[in-house]
Amino acid sequence: MTNSDHYRALESLYATAPVNDFYHPVMTVSEGEAEIIIEAGLQHCHAAGGVHGSVYFKMLDDAAFFAANSLEPEVFVLTTSFTTYTTRPMSPGNMRAVGKVVNYNRSQFIAEAVVYDSEGREVGRGNGIFVRSKMKLADMAGYAG
């Protein structure tokens, strides 16, 4: 499998996750990077009308996670820790998260992500540590490799 095939298979796997039926994200993966776009609607808001922090977290974790998994072609990675910073409140609208691996070795990946609003302003950022699991990607439903 080529790297490009691996990236497309990760995108396919992500699209099959049942949780994404609520968010309807679109993801693009490349080497050490992932970008996720969603249209945040009223269903993603807290009682005061702003986009709920759980949406920020999901986008940041997913973007960083798949940036890490782009560098691991055999097994699914796992998030072992993730820190999120909400840097600006956001009303419903387009959200774009960009994740990048900043360091990796045999035992872990460290990745960062930033989420932007429709005007390109940073609204949140986060970083996490990801480790290799024993779950083979080729055995996972949705990984079209």
TrEMBL record:
<dbReference type="InterPro" id="IPR006683">
    <property type="entry name" value="Thioestr_dom"/>
</dbReference>
<dbReference type="InterPro" id="IPR029069">
    <property type="entry name" value="HotDog_dom_sf"/>
</dbReference>
<keyword id="KW-0378">Hydrolase</keyword>
<dbReference type="GO" id="GO:0016289">
    <property type="term" value="F:acyl-CoA hydrolase activity"/>
</dbReference>
<protein>
    <submittedName>
        <fullName>PaaI family thioesterase</fullName>
    </submittedName>
</protein>
<feature type="domain" description="Thioesterase">
    <location>
        <begin position="49"/>
        <end position="123"/>
    </location>
</feature>
<dbReference type="InterPro" id="IPR003736">
    <property type="entry name" value="PAAI_dom"/>
</dbReference>
<dbReference type="Pfam" id="PF03061">
    <property type="entry name" value="4HBT"/>
</dbReference>
